[in-house]
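Appendix B. Worked example

We walk through a single record from start to finish. Start with the input: the chain for Class II aldolase/adducin family protein, Marinobacterium marinum, length 259.
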Amino acid sequence: MKKVINIDFGAHCPEGMSAEEWTLRVKLAYCYRLVDFFGWTETIFNHISVRIPGDEGHYLVNPFGLNYTEVTPANLLKVDLDGNKVEPSEYDANPAGFALHSAIHGARDDIHCVVHTHTNEVSAIALKKDGFGHDDFYGAQLYNRIGYHDFEGITLFSEERARMLDSLGDRHVLVLRNHGIAVGEADIERTFFLLWTVQRAAEIQVTAGALGGKDNPIADDIKTRCAGLTQQLISDSGFAVKFYDAMVRKLVTERGMPW
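Next comes the structure step. The output line below is what the pipeline stores for this chain.
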């Protein structure tokens, strides 16, 4: 029987850094590698960020200009809510990420990790007036859990933050119309699972839309129950951890240790 790989996210912590921050850095770097592994990257663009507990207003984000396969625990940037580096680095951050990520990190205590993507499938649905449907297995899990924000151009400007937060409300998925999505949850594991669910919903919807014939609808009460049960699964960090760890093991098995 093949032995299951054991991934120790806290191993090799540098001197002078807390174990908690180093573990976050390792998990976040793996998250970048996973997004690349699944083909969800947009070259050097887009962001995945995680708030550092106990380090008020500081979060980790990718250095601008690096491919996701070049992101490591050590070269992740630590920035404040204005996008200023709070530790020296040879790299800069992408200002397009601050309006979105800083807004959410600064306003939502229940969201510690935020991912922004615009895959083909997600961007296609963001272009459509009706947005996500909820009559497939994955779409049903997102029923009444998605906010929609009208396109205002590249998200560079701080004055858009309040409007994005209004569009998000108390939800954890934000469709940026004509653009892409942002998803956020309490930790990296739950955020990645939610991202995977949203991406699968987009893929199924785009594929079904290419077929002839009518879709088979799901009743609203069933969709409500399905979304509620999924949220319970996400709230149980043990479920998300199992999923995330399995995806990291798959990554390492197929590509080897990344650093």
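Two observations about the output. Residues 19-253 form a domain with the L-fuculose-1-phosphate Aldolase fold (CATH 3.40.225.10). Residues 12 and 117 are 30 Å apart (CA to CA).
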